[in-house]
Design brief:
Blueprint (H helix, E strand, L loop, with lengths): L8 H11 L3 E5 L3 H14 L3 E6 L14 H15 L6 E8 L9 H18 L3 E4 L13 H22 L5 E4 L19 H17 L3 H5 L1 E5 L5 E2 L4 E2 L7 H7 L5 E4 L7 H9 L4 E4 L1 H20 L7 H11 L12 H6 L12 H13 L7 H7 L4 H5 L7 H20 L5
Length: about 425
């Protein structure tokens, strides 16, 4: 992104805290989804946060094959195609640090984490989530002091790159109780205690001050805590304001807001209450690729109903997932039901596989220039039937996919703007 043309990140988060409003952050490596996100941003106005994770994008390519500068270039290209101004997009890095190399010994893992942070800041990312909340190598467990020291190590790298480059400074997200990226294997029922949150903040602040990072500390815009929301293979734990009451009360003592991870699939009312309670940054990702998959599967059913040539999309996906189980074996036993329909949406890792990408193109080509009959829209896209009926949406394959994702994004937009009606 152009230095100097970016939005005032610090100001918008200060306003969010003061006005009890917030922002949602889209975290995905799927560029079909990112295009839709940018189209939504153009239509709805306001600032959009787009993030990549340390597993998706890093100096070794991540699972997308992209380094930070490549991701930025790809997003910028889509912005130009869609017509979104650069001052309407904030790019963020999620879980930056040693996470992809956590099985290595601590020194080696941290060296790689520092290199990652350097590349993210150099590429123009402004919202930097530093995550050192887990043991490295054969460490059994780590204390908050070690977590804070490692966060400070990473922060020093980010600050050094910024001072070298000039322009707008990075803003930071910290925290030790960070939910696993992409959902959990089993149902969890845990909320960070107010006492633990306060202890972690005080420890981290002391470390930053001792390391001469006072200025960076003032640019900490959010802390990640566990608000008691999570999604797993077949279920969703919905936000309970009573369980997070202590956190809400403690937050008033600090200059930052909360960032809530894994808010995917939460109802509008729950999201709105989270924003009200200080969770001003709501992260969403797997829900959007889940809806993308849902739309493509529905189109494959319509394909069969209309007697169109079979694209073989589902067959190609299942073959790709069976041939390479590395992206799902830690989450599933391996039934077809899990692979296709789990809320964890491990399918999202396989859309770029060559045979799958070709099958998806065959599916979309089958529908090129066609409008889907209303009865089939009602049958396979019931949530979009009214939109088609009143003319808000044309029943084409591309628009149905787009609108599926729009529906999720609009729920977040309404929540962060305080429109829960």
């Amino acid at each position: 992104m152009k230095r100097g043309d970016s939005v005032d990140t610090g100001e918008i988060f200060e306003n969010a805290k003061r006005e009890k409003k917030g922002f949602f952050s889209v975290c995905t490596g799927n560029f079909d989804v990112i295009r839709v996100v940018l189209e939504f941003a153009k239509e709805s106005g306001g600032v959009i946060l787009i993030e990549s994770t340390s597993n998706q994008v890093n100096q070794e390519g991540g699972y997308t094959g992209l380094r930070p500068k490549d991701f930025v270039a790809s997003v910028r290209k889509l912005m130009e195609e869609v017509g979104v101004n650069e001052d309407k997009v904030i790019l963020g890095g999620d879980h930056l640090g040693p996470l992809p190399w956590k099985k290595m010994d601590p020194e080696e893992a941290m060296d790689k984490g520092k290199k990652m942070v350097e590349e993210y800041v150099r590429a123009g990312y402004r919202k930097i989530h530093l995550d050192t909340s887990f043991p490295l190598g054969d460490e059994g467990s780590i204390q908050p002091e070690i977590v804070a020291e490692r966060q400070a190590d990473l922060c020093e790298v980010a600050e050094g790159v910024w001072r070298e480059m000039g322009g707008d400074p990075p803003f930071y997200v910290l925290g030790t109780e960070v939910p696993p990226a992409g959902g959990v294997v089993d149902e969890e029922d845990y909320v960070t205690s107010a006492e633990e949150f306060e202890r972690v903040v005080e420890v981290t602040r002391d470390v930053f001050r001792k390391r001469g990072l006072e200025n960076a500390w003032e640019r900490v815009i959010a802390f990640v805590v566990q608000p008691g929301v999570e999604f797993h293979k077949w279920g969703i734990r919905v936000y309970d304001p009573e369980k997070a009451k202590g956190l809400k009360e403690k937050l008033s003592s600090y200059h930052f807001v909360f960032e809530a991870h894994s808010t995917d699939f939460q109802p509008l009312d729950s999201l709105s209450k989270m924003v009200r309670d200080g969770f001003a940054i709501l992260k969403v990702g797997p829900e959007l690729t889940f809806k993308y998959r849902e739309a493509l599967f529905a189109l494959e059913m319509v394909e069969a109903e209309l007697g169109l040539p079979s694209s073989g999309l589902t067959r190609s996906l299942m073959s790709a997932m069976r041939n390479d189980p590395s992206r799902w074996r830690a989450y599933y036993e391996g039934t077809d039901l899990e692979l296709k329909y789990s809320l964890l949406d491990r399918i999202r890792y396989y859309w770029s596989v060559d045979e799958v990408a070709k099958a998806k193109e065959r599916l979309l080509e089958n529908f090129r220039g066609l409008e889907i009959p209303s009865g089939l829209v009602s049958q396979y896209f019931p949530d979009l039937f009214e939109d088609v009926l009143v003319g808000r949406l044309r029943p084409t394959a591309e628009d149905l996919i787009r609108w599926k994702i729009f529906k999720s994004l609009d729920r977040y937009r309404r929540a962060v703007r305080g429109d829960a009606s």
